[in-house]
Structure prediction request, 84 residues.
Amino acid sequence: VVAPGPTPPKDLDSVSANSTFRDFMEDMDQFESVAKNFAEQIPLKRLGAPENVAHAVLYLASPVTGAYQTGQVIGVDGGWWMPK
Prediction:
């Protein structure tokens, strides 16, 4: 399982017209305030990018894993859920 942390889309064009997230992103002042708050809680001090999640998925789908991994959760969250 790939478990992404806060990973906003690059822009509204990639968000479904029905998504409540679209409404949230239309108020960019509110969105930037919430994004800043999340980033402060993440050890890497930034939100994720869609590419970060894609790389984890590609890793799991590749032969590099040896096809022998089971029951794992790969956190792609900048250390957000890392034990403190």
